[in-house]
Amino acid sequence: AIEEKMYRPNFHFTPKKGWMNDPNGMFYANGYYHLFYQYYPDKSVWGPMHWGHATSRDLIKWDEQPIAIYPDKDKYIFSGSAVVDVNNTSGLQIGNNAPIIAIYTLHDMTKEREGKIDVERQDIAYSNDNGFTWQKFEEGNPVVKNPGIRDFRDPKVTWDETHKQWIMVLAAQDRAQFYKSANLKNWEFLSEFGKDIGAHGGVWECPDFFPIKVEGTKETKWILIQNLNPGGPNGGSGVQYFVGDFDGKTFKLDPDFAKRVDKEKAVWADYGKDNYAGVTWNNVPSADGRRLFIGWMSNWEYAQQVPTNSWRSSTTIARELKLVKKGNYYNLISNPVRELDYYITETNRTKTLKGKENYTLVENEKVDLTQAIVSLEFKNLKQENYTFELSNSDGESLKFGLNNKENYLFVDRSKAGKNDFSDKFAATTSKAFLDGNQKEAVFKIILDKTSIEIFYNNGEKVMTEIFFLEKPFTALSVSSKEKMEINNVLIQKLDVLKKS
Ligand code: FRU
């Protein structure tokens, strides 16, 4: 009961009970956004993997559905994707709805125990009721056999409109592999990417591959999202990405982006510790054209030890991705989906705060900081630290902000409640390095009971972190050694639970 009250997020998705990791197979069909996820219903630690299921009309309010895909004995259903097969290329349609095809890794635990290499292969399942019930394609599985690679998983399929083909990207240990198909059943190997590029601190997992417009231009680029664990930007799991071009066969890194990778070693979609295995939705209404992303809001370093018992893990807020180019600098920006704004019940505005080294933004529980959005803009920044502090009467506090001397954003959760369940959880302050000294800075933060999501400069840099408090935060302040100038302070209350 206490963990329900303190730790069950107000508006981030969690399964009612059991263990969840990666988001899987997201698509939109017939008025619903579908979210599947790595799920073990019987315990709140990792185990025999199912595909759990939830649906939403608006990407914010989720309804848990019955389990979508069950494992057979020792044949775990690992991560993967799903596509709405609008033209019935698979021939698996029965009835009037376009079939939906799930493509996932079948992980064989018997073979794993025997020390075999060919433990993982790619299978499909299909749905003829818009994604609510599923059949495994027993007669045709596997659709991609194991080629002799131990880590060979997490297929993500997308329709390549330019070359009129289905493309599958999968993680093959230290690289991504690309396959093509006309019918989602027969797959042909095309090429691979990444063996010596980007971060390789751990095994590559959960890739995603999709075209995206460069904002404000007619140009299209391809994004390869490539999760890896460990080796993330602040330890453990992380989500890196690459920007390039795809000729229907091969993915080539864009020369400008290659320079960025050279300089930064790896480029990340999130610099906090708790955004992993994130991928994007298939079949989002095309009038809308958004590229929508959700991640698992945890980290393999401690995901199985966090202090919730009846369930473990939640997802991040759903985010819209955009590709922005400034000069020769490509950046995949992410922001919370606009649907979140629908749940704002009250907005407190302050136009300017000027001349002091310390401002209280929220005090005395005036705003419920377990469901709130706070945003503001700093002007005329000095070479100083700008530190936000969330706090409560128990002396718990979360510090985050901008170090404008050494040019990084930071989150320090070492005093933000329980952390003794893992020595990795709060050992270091997470950092996101910036290009240089900042003159202005825009912060938008999304707060739930156990998480903070920081969107810096309209999503140019993102940091997502979780925490476990004894009491909710009741105050928020910001301070610096220099006098500050802050514009457009918005403190917004959210009410996702009650408002329907
Ligand atoms: C990533 C991952 C995937 C795998 C799944 C198993 O978190 O390790 O590579 O498919 O989890 O649950």
From TrEMBL:
GO molecular function terms noted in the UniProt entry: sucrose alpha-glucosidase activity
Protein name: Glycoside hydrolase family 32 protein
Organism lineage: Bacteria, Pseudomonadati, Bacteroidota, Flavobacteriia, Flavobacteriales
GO BP term (any one): sucrose catabolic process
Keywords on record: Glycosidase, Hydrolase, Signal
Domain Glycosyl hydrolase family 32 N-terminal: 12-336
TM stretches of this protein: none
Keyword Signal among UniProt keywords: yes
Pfam families, per database record: Glyco_hydro_32C, Glyco_hydro_32N
Domain Glycosyl hydrolase family 32 C-terminal: from-to ranges: 350-488
This protein's GO CC annotations: cytoplasm
SMART domains: Glyco_32 (SM00640)
Recorded family membership: Belongs to the glycosyl hydrolase 32 family.
PROSITE patterns recorded: GLYCOSYL_HYDROL_F32
